[in-house]
Design goal:
Elements lengths: L1 H7 L5 H10 L17 H37 L3 H9 L22 H4 L13 H10 L4 H7 L1 E2 L17 H34 L6 H13 L7 H7 L5 H12 L5 H6 L6 E2 L4 E2 L12 E3 L4 H14 L4 H12 L6 H4 L11 H13 L9 E2 L4 H4 L3
Parallel strand pairs: 1-5
Antiparallel strand pairs: 2-4, 3-4
Helix pairs in contact: 8-11, 8-13, 11-16
Length: 383
């Protein structure tokens, strides 16, 4: 039979089989392909589209994380110090537009290096006024020579003489006071100059050593800089004009005659609400909680004063005006900068007027460019 013959062949002829089945009365329906079935098209496309969305949602977080990791990695290994250095030189900010320069303050380690002066030996000798005068005479250290030659002998005293009040001649008293504080102020300015020079050197290198990074972290702490911002450090790490520092010390101590200056080496009348200090006379215990900061040596007082002007929020305009002078390659002008210290005392603008009068009447700007005779090779490079 035809039917048997078909199965005896190695291959089945489907067309013959179909013909035989039709002759026998079978009905053959063609099965439609699922992918071409019109009734399931919408379901098919919806399923495919949903699957794609699920896959996209699943892999999107990984894509974003990978992108962030790439950005962080790039920031870590890409050294932008040269571009930053150029911006610093041009007075431009290296912060984003949404961030502020010289904003905020971390006080945790602000005065750590100043407190280290507490380790100064307690047997520091307080020389008498007559002894100091003789010392200055023997070393030919006088203000006329300083004004003429622009050089100061590195004679640094730790304490003021207790007889400052007894010096009857106002001129002699002022001269002695200036002679004592002048080397201390210049020395602290030199320290800042060296730090500032090192900061610019670090910014100008393509790669920085671990020692340099450690030094930067220390300076961020000393100047209370948040987020390790270099623009803020550059603004804060700068000198205070010598004439301005002398004038403020003269005003706050009565040219070295105040109790705070003699007993606590406090040259700038800085307040403290905790720790060691000297309570102002004539104030009841319930009327005020502040004290005047006291220091082991005069040098600590000078550094604390500079740190105060260079970090406290009250003197932000002072630092901004100073930075603008730097950007314009101008000399720091104490008479202009004094106007921004109206918050230094309760008298406000009246205080700044007095400071400027002290500067002008005593020709203190003569000392702004004087140099301290070097006590090291590093300091020699600053002359």
């Amino acid at each position: 039979m035809p039917f048997i013959k078909i199965f005896n062949k190695k291959k089945i002829n489907l067309s013959i089989l179909k013909k035989i089945l039709l002759e026998k009365g079978f009905t053959i329906k063609k099965k439609k392909d699922f992918f071409h079935f019109d009734g399931l098209k919408s379901l098919y496309y919806t399923s495919i589209f949903s699957f794609v969305i699920i896959l996209f949602s699943f892999f999107l977080p990984f894509t974003l994380n990978f992108k962030e990791d790439m950005i962080v990695a790039k920031t870590t290994i890409e050294n932008n110090s040269k571009q930053n250095f150029q911006k610093v030189l041009e007075g431009k900010s290296i912060k984003s537009k949404n961030e502020k320069i010289d904003d905020g303050l971390n006080i945790k380690n602000l005065f750590e290096d100043i407190f280290s002066f507490e380790q100064v030996p307690t047997d520091t000798v307080r020389l008498s006024a007559s002894t100091i005068k003789q010392l200055f005479k023997e070393t030919n250290y006088n203000l006329d020579e300083v004004r003429k030659k622009g050089i100061v002998k590195p004679i640094k005293l730790s304490l003021l003489p207790s007889e400052m009040k007894k010096i009857e001649s106002t001129k002699k008293k002022k001269n002695l006071f200036i002679q004592i504080v002048l080397p201390l102020i210049i020395e602290e300015n030199n320290r800042i100059k060296l730090d500032r020079k090192k900061l610019f050197a670090i910014l100008n290198r393509s790669n920085n050593t671990n020692a340099e990074k450690k030094w930067l972290n220390l300076k961020f702490k000393q100047y209370g800089v948040l987020k390790k911002d270099l623009s803020t450090l550059k603004v804060r790490m700068d000198e205070v004009p010598i004439s301005l520092a002398i004038a403020q010390a003269a005003k706050e101590t009565g040219w070295g005659t105040s109790r705070f200056a003699i007993e606590g080496n406090a040259l700038f009348g800085q307040w403290t609400w905790s720790g060691d200090g000297i309570k102002p006379a004539g104030i009841d215990s319930g009327d005020a909680t502040h004290k005047v900061m006291k220091f082991k040596v005069l040098k600590a007082s000078v550094r604390a004063y500079q740190r105060n002007l260079n970090t406290h929020g009250s003197y932000r305009k002072f630092r901004s005006a100073r930075a603008e002078m730097r950007d314009n390659n101008e000399e720091l002008d104490s008479l202009i900068l004094a106007d921004y210290l109206d918050k230094y005392a309760a008298t406000g603008k009246e205080y700044t007027v007095i400071i400027k009068k002290i500067i002008e009447q005593n020709a203190l700007k003569d000392f702004d460019k004087v140099k301290l005779l070097p006590s090291s090779i590093q300091l020699k490079n600053l002359i």
